[in-house]
Amino acid sequence: MRGRNGETMKRIFDNVISVFVVVVVLFLLIPLPPFMLDVFFILNISLSLIILLITMNIKEPLEFSIFPSLLLITTLFRLGLNVSSTRLILSEQGEAGQVIKVFGEFVIQGNVVIGVIIFLIIVLMQFIVITKGAERVAEVAARFTLDAMPGKQMAIDADLSSGIINEQDARRQRAKIQREADFYGAMDGATKIVKGDAIMSIIITSINFIAGSIIGIVQSGMELSDVLSIYSIATIGDGLVSQLPALMISTATGMIVTRSVADGSLNNDVIRQFLAQPRALSIAGLILAVFAVLPGTPHVQLILISAVLFLVSRRVTSQMETLERQQQELPAAQEAAKREAEAQQSEMDYYKDINNVYSLINIEPIEMEFGYSLIPLVDEASGGKLISRIVIFRRQYAQDMGFVVPSIRLRDVAMLGTNQYVIKIKGEEVARGEILTDYYLALEPPNPAGEIDGIETIEPSYGIPSRWILPENKEMAEIYGYTVIDPLSVMLTHLSETIKKHTYEILNRAETIQLVNNMKRIAPQLVEEAFSNVVSYAMLEKILKNLLKEGIPIKDMVTIVETVVDAVAITRDTDLITESVRAQLKRTITHRFCEDGKLNVITLDAEVEKKIVASLTKNEQGVYLALGPELMQKLLSQLGEYVKKFAEFSQKPILLTSHIIRIYLSRLLEQFYPDITVLSFNEIITNVQIQSLGNVTL
User: Fold this and answer.
1) Mean pLDDT across the stretch 674-687?
2) How far does Cα 184 stand from its chain's mean position?
3) Confidence of residue 268 (pLDDT cuts 50, 70, 90)
4) At residue 486, does pLDDT exceed 60?
5) Whole-number Å distance between alpha carbons of 459 and 471
């Protein structure tokens, strides 16, 4: 019995909003008794107050994403009550409930003119100041949010590729960006409802007073003074009892659209940001103290407030000085500990042992050297998160590509600039960058809404024009459409993209054997068959290198080895075997490069392909392309134009060609356009929609 009652109550709560909206619509047709009207007026005021308090305590607008719909419902509710109250005012000679009467008598207090003026001030304040401002802010926020979407999506893709986030996090962040755009678009339209509500309140109040006066004089035969007294109280009371919630809803509307750049609740943000400027508090206190000396001013009040400002400013300044002193003492303490450790064992004593000398000739697969200023980003004792982020990247990359990135050697080098870092592969420098730890990197959008002050630079991973900005300019930069990235993410993204580009160099014989040993657990018979006398580890290593060089995952080792075993019976050319492997991995290749079931590509004209096939030349080292200068020029120039087209869509360019020339064309183009991915038709599954964005012709 209890369970049945619980299900009934749940069913009622699930449909309470729908029932409420239907009841509100009925207000327009069905007369309400004064008692029920009082109940609904109080409910309207309570609901508006709750909405206002919620908007002040949320951290971001999406926490209250139902607000646009709720705004429509509350406006409809308020208009329904206005219609019901108007019916009672006109039919019952101003008797429309206790709430309206109390509001009217309290405000008017025997003076109709004052009541009318106060009502007009409230309505005009809502209409001209709050509603107008909220409407403009919502319009601008909607436009800027839409303009910033491509940059935010690029940032998510960068975080995903560097291993900072996984696929689920990326999908969730993309959904949040879409929800933000939908929310601000809805708010842009919802502000028009608030504007119309303010206009309607003036019209309803005028109708109540004019029509009530006519009914009182003509139909009831009342004296003019009595009519004005009765209907002025009812009209002003009705107007105020509806405008008070309307004012709170309008304020909530402005509050929620201006909370887009907040970090916490309104209470927390106001206190934190005010206290962050103690000098402003002390100057304000000084000015008030000067005013207190002037004759005729309220001395006690001014001195009291001035003293409070001085005390708060002094306390905040003391706390900030203590914190700054602790931060200055930290590097000195770290340096002292380092010197103490060095004193325990000198360099000479260490290298007396010949075994320690051999450590000097070891080459690390991956190294990252950095200047002194970047140590806090790496040192976990100081709160550095680089190591933990690298761990996340290694895990994500292993899941995506099937290759475990070796341990990365991190060390500070005095020879580098304080803000510089260098990435080395097998002991040789392959990338270098410089970051400013106290700044943020703002990636410039195609059409920024405004200019932001900062130090111009180039983003090291993707070569995007950027600028280093101060933390206080971060919020404004995001409003203008810039994608803002913290220094640690900049360095980690550069490291991860560099590793991805050079993974094929990192793969060695030992790593290949490790991959085979890992495969042995799930396919022991295949490993025994393949590596007894059919396939060598050297051949498999070359094939895996070919795949990784072009960004093809090697997770499916079983399929790769099976294909190699079958292909070896026909040829021992590793390039041809690699093409056979790629054909077997077509599902993996397709899913890696297509988006939403579509594959945007560049194609070659049939005549161009014929000429390229005719240009294939064989020598002692193998087969290569010997294109004539005219054909080479046409090919490169047209591809350059199409690459720019792909860049406009923020997509990686893909060239689709036949399997005969794919590998040779890929090796040729990597010298000129290293970002172009060359695929063949037999590497694409049949259910993918291929869309050509350009065709290379003669």
Assistant:
1) 89
2) 15
3) low
4) yes
5) 18
pLDDT in tens, 120-132: 777 777 777 777 7
Spatial strand order of the sheet with 689-696 comes to 677-680, 654-657, 598-604, 689-696
For residue 545, the tally of other CB atoms under 10 A from its CB is 19
639 burial type by CB count under 10 A (0-12 exposed, 13-18 middle, 19+ buried): buried
| Both tokens assigned to 691 | 């869309």
pLDDT value of position 498:
92
Which tokens go with 285?
């206190």
Q: How confident is the model at residue 547 (pLDDT cuts 50, 70, 90)?
A: very high
Q: Which CATH superfamily is domain 363-504 in?
A: FHIPEP family, domain 1 (3.40.30.60)
* DSSP letter (8 states) at residue 250: H
Q: Which residue has the higher pLDDT, 105 or 401?
A: 401
Residue whose entry in the numeric block shows the structure tokens 């036949």:
658
More confident residue, 56 or 435: 435
List beta partners, residue 656: 603, 679
Residues β-bridged to residue 655: 602, 678
The model's pLDDT over 627-652, given as tens digits with 9 standing for 90+, comes to 888 888 888 888 888 888 887 777 78
Largest CA distance in the chain: 120
Distance separating alpha carbons of residues 358 and 376, to the nearest angstrom: 31
141 within 8 A of 478, measured Cβ to Cβ: no
pLDDT at 377 over 70: yes
C-alpha–C-alpha distance, residues 603 and 609, integer Å: 10
**Residue among 229, 267, 250 nearest 56 (CA):** 267
Of 622, 641, 654, 633, the C-alpha closest to 698 is 633
pLDDT at 5 over 60: no
Residue linked to tokens 């020029």: 633
Tokens 């206005």 correspond to: 82
How far is the C-alpha of 256 from the C-alpha of 62, rounded, in Å?
9
User: What CA–CA distances, in Å, run from 215 to 25, 28, 30, 687?
Assistant: 27, 21, 21, 75
pLDDT attached to residue 441: 92
pLDDT greater at residue 277 or residue 606: 606
| CATH node for 507-584 | 1.10.8.540
- Sign for the pseudo-dihedral over CA of 491, 492, 498, 502: positive
Is the alpha carbon torsion for 678, 683, 688, 694 positive or negative?
positive
Alpha-carbon distance of 547 to 561, in angstroms, equals: 13
Distance separating alpha carbons of residues 334 and 331, to the nearest angstrom? 5
pLDDT at 308 over 70: yes
Cα–Cα distance for residue pair 8/455, rounded to 1 Å: 64
398 vs 518: CA distance, rounded Å? 13
Averaged over 673-695, what is the pLDDT? 88
List the Cα angle 211/214/220 in 5-degree steps: 120
Residue 188: name the closest of 316, 77, 68 by CA. 68
Distance, first Cα to last Cα, the chain: 82
Cα distances (angstroms) measured from residue 546 to each of 311, 530, 563, 617, 652: 70, 19, 15, 21, 19
Cβ atoms of residues 49 and 248 within 8 Å = yes
Q: Give the start-to-end residue ranges of the domains of the chain.
A: 32-131+200-260, 285-360, 363-504, 507-584, 591-698
Q: Long-range pairs for 328-334 at CB < 8 Å and ≥24 separation? A: 330/382, 334/382
CB 641 within 8 A of CB 618: no
Decide: 431 and 460 in contact? Cβ < 8 Å.
Answer: yes
Fold that domain 591-698 belongs to in CATH? Rossmann fold (3.40.50)
- How far is it, in rounded angstroms, from Cα 632 to Cα 613? 13
